[in-house]
Automatic annotation (TrEMBL):
GO terms for biological process: phospholipid biosynthetic process. The chain crosses the membrane at residues 48-68, 74-93, 180-198, 210-231, 265-283, 295-315, 321-343. It is found in: Membrane. Keywords: Membrane, Transmembrane, Transmembrane helix. GO terms for molecular function: phosphotransferase activity, for other substituted phosphate groups. This is Uncharacterized protein.
């Protein structure tokens, strides 16, 4: 079943990508990005650049998995340096895919969807990379960081759904600054070791807790501003509130799951599956925005995740393993089918190839 209604496909050709402008670091790095984009052959499709960047992010975390999955084991410095470089390459590819599309006149709603979709997945993977790289373990602070990163991205996408303008920076602090801070964190950890984050500063408060609270403080200020901006301009307050229900359920599901002892045994799998659910919600918001559809408050994936969270309360150890595998298969299948369906539907309607440059 096609996600985009037939009568809404026509709006894809009318959509225009608007942003809130560049951050301070965006302006500083723009000459480098422009130079880098000019090095690329014109035969490389922008969507392929987006995909290459996403692969870099996947590698940044996967490279750490052989050394630990509980977010407590120290990661070898060389792996941390490589992961930092992978995030740098992702960030660079993410900045130049749009430049390549404009350079060869291949801009399209499909490109915007793939870019935003990969960014939503990237949010979860960068958070996982930092948690593992810093060896912070699983606790209320790290879960708060993971949930907070996803919530902030969701709200920015939710704001775009309501205002048709993508917020790329807040008070000159944007995605680029956050990504370069992630790179710096991994480099610092590689040089000084993860113990630097556990050093006590004041009253038993660690460096990690200070860094996390500063970042989340900035994120929460931005979240408040986003909420105020949307509600200030909303003509349908009730519908606006209903469109926030999914993110509330999503966060509550993660809090519920994180409170269970089995979380430590299956943390990467569960958090990645949660990331897929989060990504699907964001993609649905983006599609609803460009195709003028209503973003529904009821989402089946969130119900499935809640059932999984509730089930592990009464299951024994062996049954929990079966539940985790079933949850994994169900979410991966649903997410893969959803993404394939949407990409195929848009590419067919607009008559454009996904990873090739359309012939003039």
């Amino acid at each position: 079943m096609a996600f985009i209604k037939q009568e809404n496909l026509k709006y894809l050709t009318e959509s225009k990508y608007n942003t809130s402008g560049s951050s301070w670091l965006d302006n500083k790095l723009n000459p480098f990005w422009s130079w880098f984009a000019e090095l690329l052959p014109r035969s490389i499709a922008p969507n392929l650049i987006t995909l290459l960047g996403f692969i870099c992010i996947i590698l940044s975390y996967i490279l750490m998995l052989p050394f630990g999955t509980t977010f407590e084991e120290p990661i070898p410095p060389i792996i941390l340096f490589i992961s930092a470089f992978m995030i740098f390459m992702y960030q660079t590819f993410d900045a130049i895919d749009g430049k390549q599309s404009r350079r060869i006149n291949q801009s399209s709603p499909l490109g915007m969807l793939l870019d935003h979709g990969c960014d939503s997945l990237t949010t979860s993977f960068i958070a996982l990379t930092l948690l593992q790289g810093m060896s912070l373990g699983l606790n209320k602070h790290t879960i708060y960081m993971y949930i907070g990163a996803q919530t902030s991205f969701f709200l920015i996408t939710w704001e775009e759904y309501h205002t048709h303008c993508c917020r790329t920076q807040f008070m000159n602090w944007g995605v680029t600054e956050a990504q370069y801070m992630s790179i710096m964190v991994l480099v610092i950890t590689a040089i000084f070791g993860p113990g630097i984050w556990q050093a006590n500063i004041i009253g038993g408060i660690t460096v990690a807790e200070i860094v996390l609270h500063i970042n989340m403080g900035i994120a929460n200020l931005a979240n408040i501003f986003v909420l105020f901006n949307v509600f200030k301009n909303s003509q349908k307050k009730r519908e606006t509130i209903k469109s926030l229900i999914p993110v509330f359920i999503m966060d509550m599901n993660m809090v519920l799951i994180a409170s269970k002892s089995m979380m430590a045994n299956y943390a990467p799998i569960i958090m990645i599956m949660h990331g897929l659910i989060f990504s699907e919600l964001c993609i649905k918001l983006i599609i609803s925005s460009v195709s003028k559809m209503t973003f529904e408050w009821f989402q089946a994936e969130l119900v499935i995740e809640f059932i999984f969270a509730a089930a592990v309360l009464i299951l024994d150890k062996q049954s929990v393993f079966v539940a985790v595998v079933a949850f994994l298969v169900c979410i991966v299948w649903r997410y893969s089918f959803f993404v394939w369906n949407v990409v195929y539907q848009i590419s067919e309607y607009l008559n454009i190839p996904v990873f090739k440059v359309k012939a003039s």
